């Protein structure tokens, strides 16, 4: 996040909230030092809040080259995204989005004559054109992201069946 994207970041957001904001939106595991730098806090401050986030189940740790790395809990992240989709969209809106996603995935399968993103990556070895190789990598990454979104939308749509008439959560 650049300074232009976060005006008043250190003045208006607490250290704990800055660490949580950075750590829970990571796309890859990062060290406490990296998170501290992004959150603009001391290393010790970052570690204190990171340890708390791990204890609360918001983050998990990964061992990497004699360093502890932090990443968002993937299950918690997935469930939070489902909740957001469920509360912000109707079942029909999600069904429309599912159709769009499925259509795009089929277009890529037809256009590149492959069934999976990794098959497309493997095709990089068959081309000598750097621009084509870059395109294959980019599309493969987008393809994986859309597969993830598709499963997320499908799972969220199932919630509409489960909670169709429920006003209170069922006891466990």
Kindly report the spatial arrangement of strands forming the biggest sheet.
Answer: 1-3-2
Element string (H = helix, E = strand): HHEHHEEHHHH
Rounded to the nearest angstrom, the distance between the terminal CA atoms is 41 Å
CA radius of gyration is 20 Å
Helix-strand makeup class:
mainly alpha
Q: What global shape is seen?
A: flat
Unreliable segments (pLDDT under 50, ≥5 consecutive)? none
Describe the structure.
- With 172 residues, this protein is mostly helical.
- Helix content is 64%, strand content 8%.
- A 3-stranded antiparallel sheet has the order 1-3-2.
- Helix 2 packs across helix 4 and helix 5 packs across helix 8.
- The radius of gyration is 20 Å and the shape is flat.
- The model has no long low-confidence stretch (mean pLDDT 89).
Topology, element by element:
Layout lengths: L8 H4 L2 H9 L6 E2 H8 L3 H13 L3 E6 L2 E6 L1 H15 L2 H22 L4 H6 L7 H33 L10
Antiparallel strand pairs: 1-3, 2-3
Helix pairs in contact: 2-3, 2-4, 3-4, 5-8, 6-8
Question: How would you describe this structure in keywords?
Answer:
172 residues, single chain, 8% strand, 8 helices
Summarize the model shown.
By secondary structure, the protein is mainly α. It has helices at residues 9-12, 15-23, 32-39, 43-55, 74-88, 91-112, 117-122, 130-162, and strands spanning 30-31, 59-64, 67-72.
């Amino acid at each position: 996040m650049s300074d232009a994207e976060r005006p008043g970041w250190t003045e208006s957001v607490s250290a704990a909230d800055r660490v949580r904001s950075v750590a829970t939106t990571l796309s890859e595991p990062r060290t406490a030092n990296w998170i501290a730098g992004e959150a603009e806090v001391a290393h010790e401050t970052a570690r204190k809040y990171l340890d708390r986030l791990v204890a609360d189940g918001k983050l998990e740790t990964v061992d990497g080259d004699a360093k502890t790395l932090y990443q968002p809990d993937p299950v918690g992240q997935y469930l939070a995204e489902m909740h957001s989709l469920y509360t912000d969209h109707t079942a029909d809106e999600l069904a429309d989005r599912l159709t769009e996603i499925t259509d795009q995935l089929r277009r890529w399968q037809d256009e590149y004559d492959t069934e999976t993103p990794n098959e497309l990556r493997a095709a990089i070895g068959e081309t000598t054109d750097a621009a084509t190789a870059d395109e294959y990598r980019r599309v493969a990454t987008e393809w994986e992201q859309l597969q993830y979104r598709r499963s997320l939308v499908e799972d969220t749509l199932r919630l509409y069946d489960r909670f169709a008439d429920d006003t209170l959560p069922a006891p466990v």
